[in-house]
Amino acid sequence: MLTIAVEKTLGEFAVNVAFTSESGVTALFGPSGAGKTTIVNMIAGLLKPDSGRIALNSDVVFDAAAGINLPTWRRRIGYVFQEGRLFPHLSVRHNLDYGRWMSGEAADPAAFAHAVELLDIGHLLDRRPGKLSGGERQRVAIGRALLMRPRLLLLDEPLASLDAARKQDIVPYLLRLRDEAKVPMIYVSHDPVEIARIATRVVRLDDGKVAATGGVELLT
Amino acid sequence: MFGLSPQEWTAVLLSLRVATVATAVALPFGIAVAYALARSSFWGKPLVEAIVYVPLVLPPVVTGYLLLITFGRRAPVGAFLADHFGIVFSFRWTGAALACSIMAFPLMVRAIGLSIEAIDRRLEDAAATLGANPMWIFLTVTLPLALPGIIAGAMLAFARALGEFGATITFVSNIPGETQIISAAIYTLTQVPGGDEAALRLVIISVVISLGALIVSEWLARRATARLHGI
Fold first, then answer.
1. Vertex B89, ends B88 and B91: CA angle to 5°?
2. Please, what sign has the CA dihedral across residues A164, A168, A174, A178?
3. pLDDT of residue B1
4. CATH number of the structural domain spanning residue B170
5. Domain count, chain B
């Protein structure tokens, strides 16, 4: 379970939010500029809140009052970026293996095969990211984040760079991730249709604040 | 070979050795300085930048003279290095390599710095979310992505070192077999009657080596760039 209560001021814009997220998929929903990406970056440790506290279950990753700020690389929180951000100099296979290399874990062929099968990327393994389509790239990015065995998976508008048809292609994979891999997820989007299909819980944001929390009925 | 006299041949080999050593020794420093200048802001950064780039604008003879009064056998730094580490630069080929390193350093730092600045830092963030600590990020993301610039910087430095004349001759003189690099040998040959033919031979060799270095670097940098774009 993620517990977050943070404040961050970026120039004219201020984020001040508090919410919790259980297992399943919690959507951060709101118009662009509502502070969605700012919030996930703080959860990931890429942006430091001015004050507040972020905890995963009983593990505090940030606490301004206690002076705790776990660096990103020690948080074990997966992140799927809008633009994929695959490493261009590594093959798909090596992109997928990157998290395991960094944690120094032994190869787990079963987990690898399962992720590859789940995301249907087996035929891409020896290619380089430059040769992938947008949808393939996002699937590999999801696989890369999944294979580091994250405690929580952040997805920041993972479908925004895709056209409508490609979006529909990816959604089933996300549902499998939710229902089969059972990774708790924070899913950022401004698209209510997309969220309605994926999310189990919705946090609606507006102008850096939580406007409402609840189920998918908030989307309307 | 190529109709070169043993002395000319010695100058060619010495030049290649000096330029290779100068480039190899300067490279780790070049990468470190380029990274620091590209990524961090610290007090006195403009001063460090000025010191790195000053050999580009100073007359080479001035740089050579500054080296002489710093690293000469009786100069403070030179005497210290000689007494404690047995490293002697003055009138040795190692001094020629030091002079070449310093003359080539700004070009190297410039090329590497540009490629580091061009790196999409969001890829480094992505590596951090995957559990890479800062050292691993540098080794597995930053360094490979900067490779075209590192190759270009190394080759520019190598070519610059081959062409070095003023700083070297001022610092370590023009001793055949020890510090007489190609350019110094050409200069010497043009000062003696009947030396034109030998000078021309060395000029041709010099042109061939320099062009070769540029072509190889261009080819390597293209390959590295293609690799980086995931092709």
1. 110
2. positive
3. 52
4. 1.10.3720.10
5. 1
Structure tokens at A53: 């506290």
Containing structural domain, residue A160 = 2-87+149-219
Kindly list the residues from chain B whose CB atom is less than 8 angstroms away from the CB atom of residue A125.
none
- Cβ contact (<8 Å) for A72 and B125? yes
Q: Closest by alpha carbon to B140, among A157, A89, A182, A144?
A: A89
Structural domain of B67: 6-228
Is-contact B28 B105, C-beta < 8 A? no
Rounded to a whole number of angstroms, the distance from the CA of A24 to the nearest CA of chain B is: 21
- What three-state secondary structure class fits B214? helix
Closest residue in A to B227 (Cα) is A89
For B117-146, what is each residue's pLDDT tens digit?
Answer: 999 999 999 999 999 999 999 999 999 999
Number of domains in chain A: 1
DSSP 8-state symbol, A49? -
CA–CA distance, B22 with B63 (Å, rounded to integer): 16
B131 CB neighbours in chain A (<8 A) are 73-74, 76, 99, 102-103, 148
**Percent of the residues in chain B that have a pLDDT greater than 70, as a whole number:** 98
Instruction: State percent of chain B over pLDDT 90.
Output: 67
Name the token pair of B5: 């006299």
CB-CB contact of B158 with B19 (8 Å): yes
Q: Tell me, what CATH number does A82's domain have?
A: 3.40.50.300
**DSSP letter at A106?**
P
Q: Is A114 inside a domain boundary?
A: no
Please name the member of B120, B129, B133 whose beta carbon is closest to the beta carbon of A44: B129
For chain A (220 residues), the mean pLDDT of every run of 10, in chain order, is 94 93 91 91 96 94 95 95 93 95 90 91 93 91 93 93 81 88 90 90 93 83
